Batch of 3 targets.
Target 1
Amino acid sequence: MISHRGLLFIALLWLAAMLVSPLLDKQVLVEQRPTKVVIYNNTADTLNFVIMEERSSRFTRWQPCDHPKLCGDRGIMPGMSGDLPYELIHNWYPGTEIAVFWWHLIPDSTSRNGYRVDGPNKIVVRTPGRAFYEYQ
């Protein structure tokens, strides 16, 4: 027979698993913090990314880097996270939406430089508003 403590322990383990599992289900998770955005890479490959103010991203001509030498050391390794202070995002202001574009480089012998891009994918999040940003 299981004691009350044993049942409580099992219930707590189950609850913890339910709280964590949504985070692990997402390939890429973007979290807003008071002064920065954090990106979690739950994929099996290095994650490359660009972050822009969302409205500006609609009018900005850009394309993902398509070779590891062009992407530099900015990529996020599998199972790791990276962050970027809001002040470094072009056209950012408190309370605006930002667009996080992300992709992987896949080795491909048929492409001109040996890699192909599997994206970009886009995640849009709203950053903390002015009052929250100034007083936290």
Target 2
Amino acid sequence: MKRNLPFILVLLSLLMLYAWLRQADQRQQEKDFSDFQEPLLVGIDEADIAEISLELPQGRETIRLVDGKWRLPFHDNHLANDLYVQLLVDTLLTTPRGSIISENVNSHKKYGVDAQARVIIVKDKNSVELSRIYVGKPGLDHRSTYVRLRDKPEVRFVTIDLIPITSRSTWADTYVWRMVPSSIQGISIRAGNEWRHWKRDQDSISLPNNIVELKAANILWQKCAVPAEPQFEVLVDVGAQPMQLSIWRDDLWKGSRSDASICFLFSDGFVEILQTLVEEADP
């Protein structure tokens, strides 16, 4: 028995060391899992977010919450596309920050999280920065992204592709008529020299819905020079001075509202709809 005692003590020591290492490994795994599960905007609630700045390949865009509505402060406080903004906010608040791929700053270029990255900057109502996310290259499956948080060196792998969520042709709300649709009493459309007219019935809604809820494909932040004879005109009767939209083609189909200082861009498909409405309407 005495001869076996040293062996037993060594064995017990090894077992205790093994148990300690297992516990340490488990604690590290729990820490890593907890860190993995924390959202990209850790410690930030939706109510804290009042401004989002996006540094994108096509330039910088700022979106600010004004009286409960998302607006574009550097474009005359034009309304932002609430659906796009809410999707971005929800994604940042719910997407786990993912696992660490590299802690080497020399790998930033490899994963696209260096100076060439897209940057999402989240601020509060006092324009104090709450978080900054560098969005790098997509994963091989194109359903994930490499990111870097604030100025930390770690490159992380998140299981959502943040590139399409930040790649919008415009962050603006592209509705042409800024009014309640029920306030529109009549619509007139001219195609060439031919006019067609619609009036709202008391018993039924007889107005073409794709004109009542008209959205442009994109917006240019400048007033267009309207030609003397645009190919199309749309007049909207709201009970006072009609709202007029002129539509013509140069390099693109463009539109200008008589009371707005921006230029709308329309698709070929929408112009075909206009032409069809005029041709098929009852005289």
Target 3
Amino acid sequence: MSKRPLLFLVMAVILTLQATFSFSSVGTTYADDQPMRLLSLPDLGSFEYPLATYSVHADMMELQNDRVSEILFPGAFTIAPNDAFVYRQLDLGNTVYTVRIAPVLPSTSVKTEELPKLLGALPLIAYDQADLSGVAIQSVTIDGFPAVRADNFMVGAEKVATHIIVKVGATVMEIVVLPTKLTGSPMHNTFMAGNENANRSIYEAIIASLRIHV
């Protein structure tokens, strides 16, 4: 077989990979340089996630039936770590995080200054305002849109790493970051606990990459 067709084949594969991935450095104890995959979703926007260690799933979360109708097209999405990454980090004593994103139609119209009252009142995670006692509610922007953010608080026995609500016209974007829930004995259905800072940069990069369509 001539080497020239083989060379053309290799070049075609490289060009295909370049078209598929945009490469960005994501600081983690597992890999210092991971390919970031750009995922565009209709009527929602786009975000990037580390393709080697995370996957995107549609509606892979528990929602109360009476809250599902509040979530708008194209639905709720979970950006979850792959098993190999989870167990590698577990062995290292690190926490890995799961990100949930959904466009939501609030039951009543909300002004920007009223966004904090939606914390705990939307479909992705429910809790009382009392759970935010002592927690600093930050006013931030996500892709230029006004938002509020609460970090590192407990909801019962569940640790919430980050809860963000973004105002997008009459709707909002809800973003929840939780420690990943483990499956299988002996830790089945329990949340990861360990070095909480080791992989924070991953979910911060995902949030920073969010581009919202209006």
